[in-house]
Fold these 2 entries.
Entry 1:
Amino acid sequence: MTAGPCFDPRDAARVAALPPDDPLRVHARECPRCHALLDAYLAFEAADAAGVPADELADADTRLARALATATGAGASTAAPQAERRADRRPSFWEQLMQPSLRPALAFAVLAVAAGAVLLWPRAATREPGMVLRGEGHAPAFVLSLAERHDDSLHVAWAPASDADRYQLQFFSGSLAEIGRVGPLTGTRADLMLAGLPFRVAAGDTLFVRVAALAGGDVLATSEARLVETR
Amino acid sequence: MTQAAPDHRDDDHLFEIAIRDPGSVAGREAASRLLGRHQRQVYLWCRRYVREHERALDLAQEVLLSAYRAMPGFEGRARFSSWLFAIARNKCLNAVAAKRLLVDDDADPDAQPHGSPGPEAELELQQDEERVRRLLIEHLDEVEREALWLSCFERMPVDEITRVLRLDNATGGRGLLQRARRKLRAGLDRGRLKEGA
């Protein structure tokens, strides 16, 4: 094998551009590590989408563009060329509601809701407290009614969430670390074989589950997390 | 279906604007555009590893946001695409389980193939990359070496190895890896017999 320094992954593009008889390029062919790394980089560059459904590609494009726009604070129009431009969009319902002429009525409505919440608070406080998990911060808005584990299966059921078109199950270990997800699912019940889960569950393991209601890939709401009870 | 890689000269131009004044509107928009040009590449790479759309999306988002946070420290000596590849590679390696060097992961975990040195010795061997490299060169041909390295150290799934190496025979990457492991075990076995002689 030609002696020569193995290259850092960050230099893969530079090595790939070298002429075939360059000593570093020769070494990269002969060394299993460098050969594998170079071919991996070329596969990354090729971005072969064969076998990936077009709707998932489109969903990835949209959601990643939105995430970048949010993270960088840049306008959505620069990150996603197909996103509608702000100037061309009709005012949303909330923008119409926040017009100056409607603000007094909106303020009254907020006060009325707050008063109602105060009156109802004692009833709400008697609910069984759910686990608090880090996540997108969506307020629990629908009920997870069943979370049970039998010998080799797991059963989860939930009430439907309005406007949701799919649901995703999110699983957490006893230390509240997320260990896997199942979905997206249609319907409001999932009967799963333990062996088919994307993570391993041993007998006696503590497992929590939470359901996320999705619409177009965005999370609308999440249920409270619930301990999966063993039957 | 492949997507043409973004022109690196455009990357250089956007990167200059992005790091000149990262807090400015122009800087943030340049960073967003630069990463946006590569977002599909990153998603497809992550999908090769985690095999499922939502997990690939989560991982791709982590990669892109890590790259955005690290951009001020990227001095531009490497090409942006390979710098981004390095970040995506690290995230994906951490997201999947390690593969064993000498035994097929789909094999019966209770069976010990002939010539295998045992799990602890195998783990010790696998952590010594330099020694593994020498052994692969000694006992395997070029394609076998690369396939085994892609599996064990790049943690690439078997069907992706088939695609990367452009294998078109019926057994593809799986058959190649089985053969490579068998030859490596036999080579190690012969080496141990010689030492014992």
Entry 2:
Amino acid sequence: MDSDGLIKLQKAGLLKLLAERHDCLIPEAVHRETVTRGKEELYEDAFEIEEIVEKSIELKKARKSDKDKRVLSSGDPTSLGKGEKQALRLYFQEQGDAIISDDRTFLNLLEGNNQKSEYGEVPFITPASAIVAMANKGIISNEEAKRGLEQIKYLIRRNSYRMALEKLDRGGE
Amino acid sequence: MTKKPYPLRIPDNLLDLAEAKSKEEKVDRSTALRQLMYEGAEQYVLELISEGRLSVSRGAELLDESVHEIYRLARKRNIEIGATEEQYEKGRETANDIIS
């Protein structure tokens, strides 16, 4: 997860549940961005994220590798911060299933890489799509999913929010 | 954050604006000018984030702010950030495969 995925899922009130059901990992830079810096500025989310990370999310040091260098070179690596770069490194290092992020720039870079498919695809999940999938699989109710989306509606694009609501109403079809 | 001197020609109208701001907010003119410059930088960074040209994390680094503050500023300025519809749709396919 990068900071974007972590913060939005926390704001939606579903980070704890997701982290309890899956092996979620964050790199040190994401912890610094969300917890350390957030706590310095007294953001309540930072304290809540810290508690969930301590119990259910693994904090790992991310090491550079040729794979992440190649993926980063498929776009403009200077457009990314330490958090996203380390999340990508951790994905390869721990052979993750997907990266959770809602960052348009980061996802643009992953999409660019995935289209070339030269170095293997890096699948991603956005927080809104995670919420809809959790509802579709009966992990949470539609009402809980709608409440979660409502909590992050000002942090995601209006069209993504509308689309997620439509998918919920149609049961994911 | 460290500060460095930089030679710059500033138009009279902007200096007048900085003067007015300095009187209004009881700060010196240089501080008022820096504040105006910083507000412009915030807007620019948020636009780049919205357009998918800069990540939230990188934007926070450049403004020396937290990522939490980036979200607050984007909301305050009514600037949409986050994944596009297409990215949401791709994310949904992956989420359906992985989330259990």
